[in-house]
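Suppose you are handed only these lines of text.
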Amino acid sequence: MPVTRLQGIGPTIFSTMSALAARTGSVNLGQGFPDADGPASLIEAAQRALAEGANQYAPGIGVPPLREAIARHQQRHYGIELDPERQVCVTAGCTEAVAGALLGLVEPGDEVVVLEPYYDSYVAVLQMAGAVRRPVTLRAPGYRLDPDELRAAVTDRTRFVLLNSPHNPTGTVLTDAELQAVADVAIEHDLVVITDEVYEHLVFDAHEHRPISTLEGMAERTLTLSSAGKSYSVTGWKIGWATGPAHLVAAVLDAKQWLSFSNGTPLQHAVAHALDHEPDWPRELARSLQGRRDLLCSGLDDLGLSPRVPEGTYFAMTDVAHLGWEDGLEFCEALPARAGVVAIPAQGFHDSDAGRHLVRWAFCKEPDVVEDGLRRLREAVLEK
Ligand code: GLN
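From them, the structure of the protein bound to glutamine can be written out as follows.
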């Protein structure tokens, strides 16, 4: 039996489903990691850093070249000015940035408004922090943020909004109007916004990602989290960061120094190199992902599994109820035997039952892998 603060929190569904894929030889359209590496110059920069002796602890806050490169990245893409000494902290992936932010800022009993469906680590760390979660649901089929529901979720005990855009798992990229609604509520109720923007560069068609910190009155109350994992296809490197006002960044450092302390010194140097020398690589990745999104979505469409065509991220959501599956978890558990494919049930990302029959499919895999998954699905009986 785990300690109270971990009770009710099972193993992460991503590990469970990847293990299921490996065990059954299934095509893994579940956990969101690409099966092709990031840019060669990034890998070479890591090899150089290893050979040149960058192999001891980095400072807890991150190596200076990476903090400086992150500040330049925020300036180049969004016009955000940051002091790399005080307003940037490097973390072990965005997951540790989320943990550091919540453990470093949230008092037991504080209410945190969070978009539902939510990434599973948010729930775990909110519970460890003793926070009370106040979900606001992005509902199928459009998955838009309803400003009235947002307002209704805020009480006088609410102190934070935990935002995620581009949004995993729905693929929603919050519009300017939706971001403004969040900003209005945050300013009116004096809330801090913690925003996970790991898919910042992975947006499609005419959709644009706008950091909420760039809205009027938000820079001083927004802690922005991101990482190199998704932007540069190195999810295993676990190099993430938190940026924003010095007092919020300091709180992340206060907590994270007791978690990982620091991580991946040579990889930090390599990511610094990529941020400066491969600034367009993530957008190229987005272009290629868009093709794979279309491939997956049209394939799912042909199968009668009409997906929500995502505006960003790696993921497409489908509703499996009309195939007779009231329960997406049951569908996903049956899928390896029926089709040799793994997907992620979305119900675990909800407090409400809004996600009961929703299933997430990842398209960050090579086109032939996506094709293989679709071929297997076409040959299988998907009706319950
Ligand atoms: N972000 C990845 C996803 O949503 C999973 C990362 C993880 O397994 N921790 O699939």
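What can we learn from it? The first strand starts at residue 27 and ends at 28. DSSP finds 13 helices and twelve strands in the chain.
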